[in-house]
Amino acid sequence: MRHVTHVAGRELRGLFVSPVAYGVMSLFAVLAGFFFILNVAYFETEVFRATQFQAFERLQTLNLNDHLIGEFLGSMSVVLMFLIPGITMGLFASEKTNGTQELLMTSPLTIWDIVLGKFLAAALFVTLLVGIVALFPGLLFVYGDPEGARTVSGLVAVLLVGWTYVAIGTFASSLTRSQVIAFLMTFVLLLCMLLLPAIVQLGIATTSGGVGEVLKWISTGSHFESLLKGVVDTADLAYFAVMIGVFLILTKAAVESVRWR
Amino acid sequence: MIEARGISKRYGDLLAVDDVSFSVGRGEVVGFLGPNGAGKTTTMRILTGFLPPSDGTAEIAGFDIFEDPLAARRAIGYLPESPPLYPEMTVTSYLHFVAKIKDVARARRREAVDRAIERCSLTEVRQRVIGSLSKGFRQRVGLAQAIVHSPPVLVLDEPTVGLDPLQVQDIRRLIATLSEARDGEVQHTVILSTHILPEVSAICRRVILINDGRKIVDAPLAELTRQGHTLEELFARETAGDATTGREETA
Lengths: 261, 251
Known about the structure:
Helix content of chain B: 25-40%
Largest sheet of chain B: 6 strands, mixed
Strand content of chain A: under 5%
Structural class of chain A: mainly alpha
Radius of gyration of chain B: 18 Å
Shape of chain A: globular
Largest interface: A-B, 24 and 30 residues
Order of helices and strands of chain A: HHHHHHHHHHHH
Oligomer: heterodimer
Strand content of chain B: 15-25%
Radius of gyration of chain A: 20 Å
Distance between the termini of chain A: 27 Å
């Protein structure tokens, strides 16, 4: 298992010696700032409107967690959908083009060492990105009083969604030797996951309840939302564990398949 | 050190390696000879544990590749046809990484890396990024990678392909020194594949000729040349002869 850290360490260092990591982090920070300001401005107008129209009920329900942090974290999870394919695309695809796959597979490493090492590296990088996201709600604690626990559970939601995306990207990268194809495959898979509930809604008349429920369950949406609302349900946590586990098992099978072709 | 027993490899209908057996002792340098597509690379990939054989098995330094795959891989250093390099890493950090995944103990890693760098004459480029190195240097980094954990067995797949004549000589000299026992250093058993005949006479003491996936000749070089044939004649005769008999069989 200590080989996992060796593989992960090399992968992370690889990210940080190239401009990719810094580019992704800067872009992410800028986008985070943009969406945060957008949401702050929106929140301010809402408060302003509610006061102007003396809508005290509305004013009562307006709060930083629902109407600012929640919206902001939701936007950031969509931004992750665009960035994570770029982070994971090279994990396995570049090993194939470098020929280093042969080095890894003829070293005393197990396939799990390789798969977990790569996943861990990308997951840690995404954790760093979520750390950047956390700075913005952090600011609100200086100027306002959002609920701490709910904010944390929202950030955990973004983190878990990010890790799930990483597992899917890792899998896509193990299927091809082209980074471009790995990127597109990941992106399409993530898009499908995002749109699943909408598709189910559209086809609700035709699909029987069971299938629709399963498809909805597969989508990150509902699990993400409930964590965002501060509802920490083990079923939702289990969902993320299952998704990550399934895609890592698929990755392991794909990497191993080189041996059986 | 290497025991191949009835190795076969099928890719669909194609039989790439057909019932190949041989045994290589400690300190031997064996040339694995054959035309392109004869099954050299496939055989080497089986020995190194990259591919499993469809039939048969092999032992590396006493470890079966099926029963004890990790130990067998630990005992082997492998230079594939194109050296497996990470272009963004420096030579030193790359070799450190290889030493880690080859189970070199932490306390001995620095020494192992320094020794590999010194043996492959990489001292002047040790802090350079691999992507910026010339082809000759890259090939040497590939060799350094194969020997960094002092494996008893070295498998080199066409180690001089694509190099200029001076670099070819360089690499050959280096390989020749690897099988010599030096103080405190592991004596490597080397098996190298090539289709360049002078390479065999320059480095190897024994020849295994393989064609169409089958072993045709397995003899010490001295014995072959004593019979009055040059390697070229032997190669032409054996590969052509086999091709005709092969055709007769299928007809």
